Amino acid sequence: HHAGGTIPGAISIPYNEAADRMDELGCEVDFDGFDCTEAKPVALFCNGNWCGQSPTAIRRMIEGGYPADKISYYRGGMHAWRMLGLTVPDPCQRKNNQNPTDFAANH
Fold first, then answer.
1. In angstroms, how far is the first alpha carbon of the chain from the final one?
2. β-strand pairing of 71-74 with 42-45
3. Cα separation of 1 and 8, whole Å?
4. pTM above the 0.85 mark?
5. Of 24, 38, 44, 92, which is the most buried if we count CB atoms within 10 A?
6. Quick check: helix, strand or coil at residue 34?
């Protein structure tokens, strides 16, 4: 998924898995699904503003109990990020101790 690079510090969670992996974003699994009282602020983005995957993930996350006020959406996605000339880490230069989908924010 990150073969072409990503926004520094981003963690890749496929849009169709986001609502099932909210425990990775500060929610606690409970018998009803998730308790998101300690949810982390997140920003979702896609390849570009034409992509509907992030809005789909956002809707599913909110339906699953993620607080809407903790979710931001970067509509321009990677297309706008690159056009603005912002930093895109090289996916081949990951820190050894990181998950394969995590990138160092200082590259």
1. 18
2. parallel
3. 14
4. no
5. 44
6. strand
